[in-house]
Structures are given as C-alpha cells and as structure tokens.
Amino acid sequence: MTKSSEEPVSAKSAGSTGEHVRPAWSGYALIMAACAALGLGIDQLTKWWVESTMTLGQVTDVLPPLLRWHYILNPGAAFSIGTDYTWVFTIIMAAVCGFLVYLMLKVRSVSWAVALGLVLGGAAGNLTDRLFREPSFGQGHVVDFIALPNFAIFNIADTCVVSGVILVCLLTLRGVGLDGVRTPSSTAPETGSTEEIGTKDIKNGKDNK
User: Fold this and answer.
1) Alpha-helix residue ranges (DSSP H) falling in 105-186
2) pTM for the structure as a whole
3) Catalytic positions
4) Rounded to whole angstroms, how far apart are CA atoms 196 and 189?
C-alpha cells in the first residue's frame, strides 16, 4: 500500500513541474557515434573505390560540366594549402576528434548529435588517411576526387564536415544548446516590461483624472 501510494505522488510532482523526461545520455551518444561511423565508412569505401578503379590524375566526367571525378592525393588542406606541413593537419584533426568524443558525453539533443556526428565522421575519415596512407604514418596524403567547377577537389569526409558545421551554425543561431533547450530571445522580456510600463502609465493617467 505504501509503495503504490508513493508512485502517483512522484508522478504528479514530476508533471506539475513541467519538466520533460529526457532519455539517458547514452542514447544521444549512440546517435552521434552512428552518424560518425556512417560518414567514416562511406568516406573510406568511396576512397577505396577510387583507388581501385582510377589511376592517379585520371579525370572522369559524371555530369559535365558540373561534376566530375578527379583522382588526386592531397598532402595539405583545401586548395592544397600547407602541403609541407602535413603533420600539423594530423595533429589538428586528432585534437578535433578527441574534443568531439568529449562532447559526445554532453549531447542531449538529436539535432546536435547528428551535426557533431557528421563532423566527427568527416574528421576521422581524413585523419585515417593521414595516419595510414603513404608516404608515412602521420603524414599520409588524403584521397580527393569530387571536382566542381572553380572549386577545390574534395571527398566525402570534407562533405560531412561542411554539412555538420552548417548544422552547428543553424542550431547556434536558433539558440539551441547541447542539451536541446532553446534559449529564449533576450528581447522578449524587454518587450513585456515595456508593455507593462505603458499599461501602468495609462492607469496612472486615469487615476489622476
């Protein structure tokens, strides 16, 4: 009797506070890990396909003149920047991956889990190239093959990173935190307070008459 009588009280108190019960952090971490694994897997499979079916420097038209495959090995960043400092990009990507794994423990939002998972998968994809491809460990060259007009040649990992960053920017602009809670606009209280002041002034004017 005591146990059954306590349960409704706790449920009622939880409902009265208006708080939403959120799943454990592991659920969001799994979503983020799944997105990262998917991005990493597709990236490595497409790179393996390019290496297996194309020769270095080969260009294949796909949707001319908008899209073509152009197989290159990039030791630097986008637009072949920093080709002599491959190890620097390796350290940066390793640090980014480590930080994103840390954030995995803090995410309480599906949207944030997807966004950060895409960034993690893309960073891990290019980091894998840096670590295990020639010419040496930590200084491997990244496989790039997607070519657009007047743009850098890139890969699926780069696409995942850019897509994830865009989602992060949209969530930030909307004021959605890692916990999934949207921060109310700072102008709302000011508007309300202004209306209250105006109402009081009208009332005071009537009272004076």
Assistant:
1) 110-132, 156-173
2) 0.75
3) 144, 158
4) 10
